[in-house]
Amino acid sequence: MEVNNIFTWYLDQHTEIEPETDPELIKQRVWQRRVGVKDSGRLTEAQIAAQEDRLGVRLPMPWRNVYKHFNGGWVGTLYWGDMSNPHSSDVVPIPQATHQYLALEDVAPLRERLPAEWEDLDQGNLDCSNLDPRLIAIACAGSEAILLDYREGASPRVCKAFFSKYEDDPLAAWETDRSTVWWPNMAVFFRGLYLQNRAA
Q1: Angstrom distance (rounded) from CA 80 to CA 173
Q2: Quick check: helix, strand or coil at residue 114?
Q3: Share of the chain above pLDDT 90, in %
Q4: Which end of the chain is more exposed for a tag (fewer CB within 10 A), N or C?
Q5: What are the CA-CA distances from residue 60 to residues 57, 66, 119, 122 (Å)?
Q6: What angle do CA 91, 97, 102 make, to 5 degrees?
């Protein structure tokens, strides 16, 4: 089993590549070289601060700095647990429908993002107006969301929320649903993130 960190695949996909010009390398069939990361792959401090103003919250560290390297996107086989002792039962800390975190410009209160996801599931309209606007979705797809929960203050808890389409009211008990997972803060959540290649 091979493990790695959250940025490896993403940065590989956002790498700027140019033709190789070294004749010795060309002889060895090396045709391209990496020269940097595309601007779209990371945000500046000013861009992050502008999005925080829009959201009305300060993003927690170290997730705030993630956007300087990783502005949302697909991260593949991401798990949460002990990287040195990975298990197949480790939590998948991202919506399994897409395996993507939202670009920061798309991060929004859950009550703004969830209704559209619910419609995509052909579940009709879901009235989310009673959801607290301090529940900020950094990922949302299908019936799952990764949330920053600012309801108790400026240092948010992190949650992988599950909304059952089989419940009459999917919003009634999502916080205690057995598929919902809570972390006390971003430091604990971030420390446990790792990539796991189970085919290796």
Answers
A1: 24
A2: helix
A3: 33
A4: C
A5: 9, 10, 30, 34
A6: 85
Structure tokens at 137: 């979705």
Exposure string of 51-68, with b = 16+ CB inside 10 Å and e = fewer, is beeebebebbeebbebbe
Cα(151)–Cα(111) distance, integer angstroms: 14
In the three-class reduction of DSSP (H, G, I as helix; E, B as strand; rest coil), residue 128 is classed as coil
Q: 141 - beta bridge partners?
A: 144
Closest CA to 152 of 177, 182, 195, 112: 182
pLDDT digits (tens, 9 = 90+) for 75-122: 767 889 888 888 888 898 988 888 888 989 999 999 999 888 777 666
Give every CB contact of residue 157 below 8 A, 6+ residues apart in sequence: 148, 149, 182, 183, 184, 185
Show the tokens assigned to 194.
């790792």
Instruction: Give yes or no for a cis peptide into 62 (omega within 30° of 0).
Output: yes
Amino acid making up residue 69: H
